[in-house]
Amino acid sequence: MVSRTKPLRRDAQRNRDLLVEAARKLFAAHGLDVALEEIARTAGVSIGTLYNHFPNRADLVEAVFSDRAETVTKIAEHSLAMPDAWDGLVHFLERICELQANDRGYNDLVSRRVPQATPTEGHLHGFQLMSRILDRAIEAGVLRADFTMADLAFLTWATARTVEATGAVRPDLWRRHLGLMLDGMRAGAAHPLAVPPINPEELNRAMMGDCG
Fold it and tell me: Is residue 212 part of a domain?
């Protein structure tokens, strides 16, 4: 019986690898809304095989982008190690925006919350590091004191739309957009804002597309 199950395990792993690779390529080229049937077809397996490995889209997205949490953590750690707090913040934002510009699937991922997805330990650690990057810049007096993590989310959303709208015409135009936003984030440019920052519950609803 052992000899029969080994080939099945190898076949199952091979099918899973094919599905992840197909999804990675299709997400990068077309975004996260690619039909699951197209992913299965590209991988050369049935849609039933896809659902056996990934019961929902969130599971497949997590498998494709599982290494991104580690990448973001490394970028954040490097940013925090930079002597100048503002340079560290700019480095972090530029690297994240580069990831967005180079992968349409990741660009979609940072601008929405995938239904049924749950934060991993890596994601939570990355969130903590990002918060430290902002706190350090505020404490150094270079980032406006009212800038929040929710504002950082809106910055990545804005970049996502710029990448989406101009990627085929000017792939690097997001750098100008980011530069304009960074100037508005400087403590020396700060003026009182008309409304308070969005709260966590509102942010979650916005990412889920709930306007009610």
Answer: no
DSSP symbols for 80-127: HHSSSHHHHHHHHHHHHHHHHHH-HHHHHHHTS--TT----HHHHHHH
DSSP-derived letter for residue 188 is G
Does residue 175 belong to any structural domain of this protein? yes
Of the candidates 127, 129, 131, 136, which has an alpha carbon nearest to the alpha carbon of residue 86?
136
Provide the Cα torsion 151, 154, 155, 158; round to 10°.
-160
92 pLDDT band (50/70/90 cuts)? very high
Task: Report how many domains make up the chain.
Answer: 2
Residue 191 lies inside a defined structural domain of this protein: yes
Q: In angstroms, rounded to a whole number, what is the distance separating the alpha carbons of residues 60 and 183? A: 38
| 150 and 162, same domain (yes or no) | yes
pLDDT (tens digit per residue) in 99-155: 999 999 998 888 775 544 555 666 788 889 999 999 999 999 999 999 999 899 888
Burial of 94 (0-12, 13-18, 19+ CB in 10 A): middle
pLDDT band at 7 (very low <50, low <70, confident <90, very high): very low
The CATH number of residue 32's host domain is: 1.10.357.10
The pTM of this model reads 0.77
| Full domain range(s) for residue 59 | 2-64
Would 25 be classed as within a structural domain? yes
At 123 the pLDDT is 72
Round the average pLDDT of the chain to a whole number and report it: 87
